[in-house]
Amino acid sequence: MSSIRLFVLGSLDQHGPMHGRALLQLAEQEHIDDWTDFAPSAVYGAIKRLAAEGLIDEERVEKQGNYPERQVYKISAEGMDALDELRIQGLSEIVIKPDPFDLALARLDPTALDELPGILHRRLWRLTETLASEESHLKEISKYLSVAESWSMSHKFSRYRAEIEFHERLLSELPAIISDEQNRDTQSRESTKGHNE
């Protein structure tokens, strides 16, 4: 599922023919990078790929004032079919990406276990601060968002809250985790010592 493709095709379907600069400005106005997985600057590359695939067509060249000529694109019939599929995929697929944190937690350094509580407390603090900042930002821009866009951002906040809850539970279980890691390290060293004798 490609969010950038969905954005470009969906914008051309909703707003009609547009040039790349107009799509970039729309992405910036909608604060697209706050609630999706691409930056507004990715729009230009996506336009080239979509045009090469025949999902958007050149409509006309536009020139305004001293600005350079701009190619205006419209969604093609094939693009409408692709857009329908992307909308269904986006609403149907579940995307929860692996977090490197999990691998790092599963491969702790037994010689640095005393640093773990501080690292996790700082991580929890950053998550809490990020959520507060994002919620404050939402209040500032909420008047520009549709109801559906507000719900999209709310989904992101729900994920932050789940992360915060997970980290609070993790911190409460830290003594058991550290004890288990110390025992495993001792057993590993004893096993290695036994093999070497």
Structure in words:
The chain folds into two domains: 3-92, Arc Repressor Mutant, subunit A; 100-196. Helices cover 69% and strands 8% of the residues. A three-stranded antiparallel sheet has the order 1-3-2. It is mostly helical and 197 residues long.
Percentage of residues in DSSP E strands:
5-15%
Q: Which structural class fits the helix and strand makeup?
A: mainly alpha
As for the number of domains, it is: 2
H/E order of the elements? HEHHHEEHHHHH
Ends: how far apart?
55 Å
Provide the residue-averaged pLDDT: 89
Total helices: the number is: 9
Low-confidence stretches: none
The helix content, as a percent range, equals 55-70%
Sheet with most strands: 3 strands, antiparallel
Shape type:
elongated
Question: Could you write a compact summary of the structure shown?
Answer:
By secondary structure, the chain is mainly α. The chain is built from 9 helices and 3 strands.
Tags for this model:
single chain, 197 residues, mainly alpha, Arc Repressor Mutant, subunit A, 2 domains, 3-stranded antiparallel beta sheet, 9 helices, 3 strands, elongated
Describe the SSE topology.
Blueprint: H1 3-15, E1 18-19, H2 20-29, H3 32-35, H4 43-52, E2 56-62, E3 70-75, H5 77-92, H6 100-106, H7 116-141, H8 147-172, H9 174-196
Antiparallel strand pairs: 1-3, 2-3
Helix pairs in contact: 1-5, 7-8
